[in-house]
Records
---
Amino acid sequence: MRNQPFRRCYCGRSARFEVSSSMSNPGRRYFSCKHFLDEKEDCTYFEWYDDELSNLWYKEKMRELMSLKSKKSTVAELSSENPLSDPMFLIRGLVVLVMVLILLVVVLMMIW
Ligand SMILES: [Zn+2]
């Protein structure tokens, strides 16, 4: 993290550099004091690093991306599930196969 931008905040410490995940400013980077809501420090330093996203489409995409990021672990869990290990999947497949066979027999009898 050596190339990361740097700001010093009102209380003299180096400000925290983070990425917003709020609904109104998704993906927008900002600086804030490490003790932002600490009453004892009374330092209310806060500064946006990126310009505000004026494009609504872009905002929407960022929001999607960020929600996708948080869902990633769930998706990984789902995809690791093998459908063949599910007994209901096998039963359903067997039922479809039997129905197709019956249909085939009926069609063949009609042609005969
Ligand atoms: Zn501060």
---
Amino acid sequence: MKRAILALTIASLGAGVGITGATPADAAPAAYCASGNICVYNGFNFTGSTTPSWKCGVIDNIGSRWGSDQVRSFINNQTGHVVATFYNWNGSNWIPIGYSQAYDSRPYAPASFYNVPDGVDGIKPC
Ligand SMILES: [Ca+2]
């Protein structure tokens, strides 16, 4: 039991160091999203870690590489006023839960996108 508590404490300390000890290389430029992409962030105001999606007609499973239910802000920097669709994976199907028409920049994503199991797991950029 003592060992388990110690391991938990070390893990917690490690997480704290990761948050407070970010190097310049870890810090993404604020609100940068390359043209043609929709970029989601796990922090509000385009902070935290980010991942881009860009392939039209394909649901990009961001949950598999970046995480699920944590889209707190996003920038849709695509062209031509295309509409991106945000999806939740309900265990057997992709369910659309939100849309964004380019250009669109949301420092605060809808509350239904994060911290809930039905939050965003995938994005079809266009
Ligand atoms: Ca989800």
